[in-house]
């Protein structure tokens, strides 16, 4: 597991290159299956590691790992615009526990006269249904959120997307998924915070117009996908995108959504 210094050195290298643009650093987002393979912990066999000890659960169970990363993130925030994002939060108690640890780390740095950004923005991933359903409460306690569609869709539809027997049922345009996304965006905007999205859905230009119309503020995509996403955004008016998104969200059947999508033309 990386030391505090190793974390800091890598973060500094990135922040220095990205500055003055912001760098978003996600807290440890490893699953139990990866950790077992990597030999960091003797976690034993997990029947379903995607529902097991991973991400923020791992950080809270092993706070020494979490604290090393938080210290390095805070320290590097003195050298450029940095944002901190928690992974796989499933409820307010986890969010508050993570923030309490963050608060203690900040105080330790102040006591040691180590500089950091006192106004560091803190956000969270929205990838678990339990937290999506209380997004109105979550949004009041963070500075931004990011919808992690890979896990959100997998958990919402009870589908393992890497299982070839059911992978075809993994559908970002399932009516329930679109309604979850709309709810997350609407409630977050009511709280005055921005919403980004990462995962395969954000990087697929077939979904860009609908996400734009739903009010998504930021698309987190790979460099290779960027030009196609920009092309869609520049090729439609926001009013048209909003109207199409509103029509699609009303649908309860996937075939209805496909028919609407088939009529869309991008300039």
Provide a quick synopsis of the model.
The chain has 267 residues and is of the alpha/beta class. The protein has 13 helices and 6 strands.
Could you spell the SSE succession in H and E letters? HEHHHEHEHHEHHEHEHHH
Strand order of the largest sheet: 1-2-3-4-5-6
Strand content: 5-15%
By oligomeric state, this entry counts as single chain
Low-confidence parts:
none
User: Per CATH, which architecture of the largest domain?
Assistant: Alpha-Beta Barrel
CATH superfamily of the largest domain: Phosphoenolpyruvate-binding domains
Number of helices: 13
Percent range of helical residues: 40-55%
Distance from N terminus to C terminus (CA atoms, Å) equals: 48 Å
Q: Let me know the average pLDDT.
A: 91
CATH class of the largest domain: Alpha Beta
CATH topology of the largest domain: TIM Barrel
- Tell me the number of structural domains: 2
What does this structure look like?
- With 267 residues, the chain is α/β, with parallel strands linked by helices.
- It folds into 2 domains: 1-125, Alpha-Beta Barrel (TIM Barrel), CATH 3.20.20.60; 127-267, Phosphoenolpyruvate-binding domains (TIM Barrel), CATH 3.20.20.
- The chain has 13 helices and 6 strands.
- It has helices at residues 4-18, 32-38, 55-61, 63-76, 92-111, 129-132, 135-138, 149-157, 175-190, 205-214, 223-234, 238-249, 254-262; strands spanning 23-26, 82-86, 121-126, 144-148, 194-198, 218-219.
- The radius of gyration is 20 Å and the shape is globular.
- The mean pLDDT is 91.
